[in-house]
Amino acid sequence: MTPTIEAKTAVTVSSLLHDSAAYNAWANKRLVDWLQTKPTDLMDQQVPSSFPTLKATLVHIWDTQRFWLAIVQQAPVPVSFRQVGFYGTLDEVFTEIVAQSEQFSAYVQSLTEAELEEEVYFTTPWVDGVQTRISFIHHCMNHSTYHRGQVVTIGRIVGLTDAPMTDYSFYRLIG
After folding, report:
1. Which of 43, 75, 87, 164 is the most buried (most CB within 10 A)?
2. pTM above 0.90, yes or no
3. Which residues carry a binding-site annotation for a divalent metal cation?
């Protein structure tokens, strides 16, 4: 007989987003913990991808999360690393992506259903608009998941074949 997992509570939009943000922080930490055990020169090895290195992909995830957190908080948007470049160390990237993911999760955990449903305004160099916090948070968490997949793929290309499991279902089972 196959074991089953039963939901302990009803799923709501807020519980799903709270869980999604916590999962994002967990998954980013797992990847960082894994990458910290690997040779540092592999983090800057160039491959054909959206972002050419493991480090650049992690910086992009971190930078994008910084942007969207500012949007959902209706705070000033930080200057993007894409605009000014990133000249920090690999250790800084590892530390800050984990810290920022935990900060984003803590903020999402603090939001009520009504606050999640509030509309927020944003202005970017590409588009201006308004959407609910729900939409922006969902977009950001999905974006990070997309690029974590690229981290694993880039890792395989540079010879790292032992990436940790970061699937959401795995998180739900052990997280």
Report:
1. 43
2. yes
3. 60, 143, 147
Other CB atoms within a 10 A radius of the CB of residue 66 amount to 20
Place of tokens 């588009």: 127
**Cβ proximity of 27 and 171 under 8 Å:** yes
Q: Which two tokens stand for residue 149?
A: 């997949």
The residues spanned by each domain of the chain are 13-174
- Token representation of residue 137: 């948070």
Residue 110 tokens read as 């603090």
> How do residues 76-99 score in pLDDT, each as one tens digit?
988 889 889 999 999 999 999 999
Query: Rg of the Cα trace of the chain?
Result: 17
Of 116, 1, 18, 24, the C-alpha closest to 9 is 18
Sign of the four-CA dihedral 125, 131, 137, 143:
negative
Binding residues: 60, 143, 147
Q: Is the dihedral of CA 89, 91, 94, 95 positive or negative?
A: negative
Domain 13-174, CATH among 3.30.365.10, 1.10.730.10, 1.20.120.450, 3.40.350.10: 1.20.120.450
Return the DSSP state at 79: P
